[in-house]
Amino acid sequence: MQRPTVPTRIPGSTPIPNMFGPEKTFNILQWSVTSHRTPILSQTRTEEYSTLLDVFSLPEMLFDSKLYVENKETGFKLEFNALDGLKNAKTDVLQNEGVSGVKVGCAWDTKNINAAFQDGTKTIEERDDNIDWTFTTLYKGSMSIKGSENQPVIEDTTEGVDYERLKRRDPILFYDELVLYEDELHDHGTGQLSVKTRFMGEYAYILLRFFLRVDGVVVRVIDNRFYTDYSKDYWLRETSYLESSYDDLAKKSVNVKEPTLMADPNQLLPKLNCKIKKTVKIYVK
């Protein structure tokens, strides 16, 4: 995403307080966006997460950070946080969404995984406690409408995110980037859930991304891109699931032994195989 320039005041917006502090809020027209940044969870808070999720294994770096967007007229709220992200990393959730066969499709097999990750005491199967060991998540954000038990209306659409508009160098009035959780997979790669946002004078954009790299095995990127024009009563959400094995990337002339390249999802994205791509409208009233 484009890095922020110095914020510019426009009619209908409020200045950004505490621009680089732990929490910041920005208001423009009917919208309010807040980002809350925290240190890595304490042991006590981590144990609370473990109890709430009913799991033992959690990412090494876990944060209470969150980003949320609210419509002050309708009560619509869109939030991104680690706890809900991990709820969508549980094995039963992934299986219900048809993700259970991904390891096989990428030529993963239990014998090879355990050979790579054996720590002398336990194998991957023994570590299994109903959460995916790579912390892969199909999380698409948490939505609600204040004062209503109903979820926002979502419908399929052929309308796409206006990427040409996003490429313009319009002044960025609000920007932030948060890591929700990250794990180094026992020094054999990385799994990270992060969220970025930028609000311009007439439109806003949010990128929720899960990035997985298992060294020598697979690269996976699951993106949820949210886009709205302030004159509209809906957000677009474009979901894409991309994945390729190291062997497949090597066949596409990707230097899989280059650490900097293999740590950069933006560079790898064009080389990954797209398994799912779908766009929906999320109505805010």
Description of the structure:
- The chain has 10 helices and 13 strands.
- The protein has 285 residues and is an alpha+beta fold.
- The protein has one domain (23-283).
- The strands form 2 sheets. It has an 8-stranded antiparallel sheet with strand order 3-8-9-10-11-12-13-7.
- The two termini are 29 Å apart.
- This is Type 2A phosphatase activator TIP41.
How much is the average pLDDT? 86
Strand order of the largest sheet: 3-8-9-10-11-12-13-7
Question: How many helix segments?
Answer: 10
Return Rg in Å.
Answer: 20 Å
Helix percentage: 10-25%
Question: How are helices and strands ordered from N to C?
Answer: EEHEEEHHHHHEEHEEEEEHHHE
Distance between the termini: 29 Å
Work out the number of β strands.
13
The biggest sheet amounts to: 8 strands, antiparallel
Indicate how many domains the architecture comprises: 1
Main structural class: alpha+beta
Strand content: 35-45%
Shape call? globular
**Which blocks of ≥5 consecutive residues have pLDDT under 50?**
2-12, 14-20, 100-127
Protein name: Type 2A phosphatase activator TIP41
GO cellular component, one term: cytosol
Pfam family, one: TIP41
Organism: Acrasis kona
